[in-house]
Amino acid sequence: xxxxxxxxxxxxxxxxxxxxxxxxxxxxxxxxxxxxxxxxxxxxxxxxxxxxxxxxxxxxxxxxxxxxxxxxxxxxxxxxxxxxxxxxxxxxxxxxxxxxxxxxxxxxxxxxxxxxxxxxxxxxxxxxxxxxxxxxxxxxxxxxxxxxxxxxxxxxxxxxxxxxxxxxxxxxxxxxxxxxxxxxxxxxxxxxxxxxxxxxxxxxxxxxxxxxxxxxxxxxxxxxxxxxxxxxxxxxxxxxxxxxxxxxxxxxxxxxxxxxxxxxxxxxxxxxxxxxxxxxxxxxxxxxxxxxxxxxxxxxxxxxxxxxxxxxxxxx
Length: 316
Prior knowledge:
There is one protein chain. The protein is α/β, with parallel strands linked by helices and about 325 residues long. The chain folds into two domains: about 5-175, Rossmann fold, CATH 3.40.50.720; about 180-310, Orthogonal Bundle (N-(1-d-carboxylethyl)-l-norvaline Dehydrogenase, domain 2). Helix content is about 45%, strand content about 20%. Strands 5-2-1-6-7-8-11-12 form an eight-stranded mixed beta sheet. The model has no long low-confidence stretch (mean pLDDT about 95). Keywords: NADP, Oxidoreductase, Pantothenate biosynthesis. Catalyzes the NADPH-dependent reduction of ketopantoate into pantoic acid.
């Protein structure tokens, strides 16, 4: 039976792992000790758009994995963790499994390609959120697109077929970057804004000043991507326009960055909006809105770490 390792079994990773568990031998890795233990002992419960309980082993570190080869490894950890995870998985890469990144930020595919294994890069419009240990809510059923970053279409078509069979519609593209750029710009804008409004999602769509900020950031991000030679397979802000017009209901989830701040964890700002700022500076493109939002999120990170530090808690 096909063996698939899912690294990062949180929101999207949890949905992917749970859906695949009925069609492949799935193993999970997640640094959340309580979450990993609950999955191994009681299974992973999906709520919302998908309701099921999937049973598969989940460990907290690659050193706990049984020394058996995997056919594919799916990366859904935060971008900042990719390099360390690859180092931890070194002993499982000799068989050259397919490495797939559906992560939000830039730079992950390049790290995976350095292993010499076939690498698929992609984007997904599936949305979810971590609820509690052993529980993930499936918020939006969305399509997934993958394509070769290193390797051939044949190296990854089989995995697309597996995702489709498991109820996760997936299309293989010769060049996935137009789709990756579209989702990337959406995340660069909406994720940090969600953190700035403290996870109150209505503020992202109903406060005029925030809507204006969103539109300005989107324009800046798209200008930088085009200057880099990129293009878009769909309007990165199409979903935002639909919510504003009432064509689709207001989502309940304000993005992973808001959850990171609430937990006192580091965000992916450097791999998202911060990456745009760095590229814009190199290209000589002014991006004042993105630059300001990046700085504010870094301030939020600092404040959240201070608030959740053991020293602060013990003195309270």
